[in-house]
Amino acid sequence: MKQVTKNRIGMAPGARVRTRQAERTEATRRKLLAAADRIFARDGFEAARLEDIAAGAGYTRGAFYAHFGGKEEIFFALLEQGVRQRIDSVTAAVRKQKSPQQKLAALRKYYAEIAKDRRLVLNSLEFKLFALRHPEAHARLRVRHRRLRATWAELIAELLKALGHTLPISNAAASAACSSLAQGLLLEQLVDPKSLSEKDVRHILGLFFDSIFRVKCNKSARAEKYL
Description:
Blueprint: H1 13-43, H2 50-57, H3 61-65, H4 71-95, H5 100-112, H6 118-133, H7 135-163, H8 171-191, H9 198-213
Helix pairs in contact: 1-2, 1-4, 4-5, 4-6, 4-7, 5-9, 6-7, 6-8, 7-8, 8-9
């Protein structure tokens, strides 16, 4: 039987070619997502053009369609990427803490700072408006959105189990409420920062977190205890 010739690191030539192709494909996909992030934040979902996204990444419209089926697909891929990165970050911050109370404090601190992510919040709003304006896509997008929210709910469930606590509402409802309040406050802060400062937003989010997770703070500490 003829043996396959291998290179010096032990990889068959065909496998090496496939690896390089996969790396190029992933690099192209990253560039397209980065360009889409900029274009969607600048123009909004409805006004954004595929040509601008492709050109912003240095590719043609044809190259775009080689990686994404359309504007809706890349938009949701971008949203999923942002949520996944956020989840990975907060999960790492929570799990490196030792006690359940420290884990809760880490989650609270992260949540209070969440509204600083202006681009992700605006893209989330664009996604919701698109779903509402396009009934034919609403059900499909709702399923994908619930899948993202479920990941947050799983993290909440893990923390509650460690604390030995239960919530007065479902974990899914808690996840939805926390996200919705953060997005709403950030929008208000962006529209009128003199009426609602970033510090106000962090403070309100902290108070809301405490009410959901039933965190008790004394008068001197109040909501700044974990910030």
